[in-house]
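Prompt: For my understanding, could you write out one protein's sequence and backbone structure tokens?
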Amino acid sequence: MYTLALANNTFSSCFTKKYTTYKIKKGADTFYPFVFNDIMGLGPTNGVQVKDVNLAMKGKVKEGYKFNPDSKLSKDDQFYNKGPTNNDKVHVLVCVINATTVSQLSENIVKKIREIRKEATDLGIPQVAILTKIDQVCPEIKEDLQNVYKVNYLKEKMKQFSVNVGIPMNCIFPVKNYDEEINLDDDVDSLILSALRNIINFGDDCINFRKNPSRAVMSK
């Protein structure tokens, strides 16, 4: 359970305001070789600007930048990174969606996700989705998390989201949030770690491709 990434239990507004990087400690003075960059949410009303997300993917947003729903980051701003390195750039785009709200996604949010995915595709960045709070949409899953891939209702939710935004089904990972628990649970961890493993694998693929892009000519 990682409490440094603060969260809110309401949907009234976007809780995250600043561009924040999170590392996970491996030892006393070492960290795992990946980071999470958290940004402002997409909605439901005043959310992050698509252009700011695009700049973040290119590594042009510095740590601590405060997102403004009314305007994008300008090139003369102190938080604009004019010379991003490979470590500044994004290698996987992760869209986090509450499973209880899939059916209520507004056209505006769906449009934003599609626009961001288009930019990510142009940049060669793989895209995945995390479907959270799956236990709140189905009693069978709440009773036993191991039913997660057996329940048709959840599968339909995943299909609905896939059709709406275009992310393939095998890139959508269902997880249960730690919300009431105070101790770790193997079934909860299994889903989270499975999603993380896939995200890291996609990121490795992106990095390796950028280092050694293959060239092939197809002809009939």
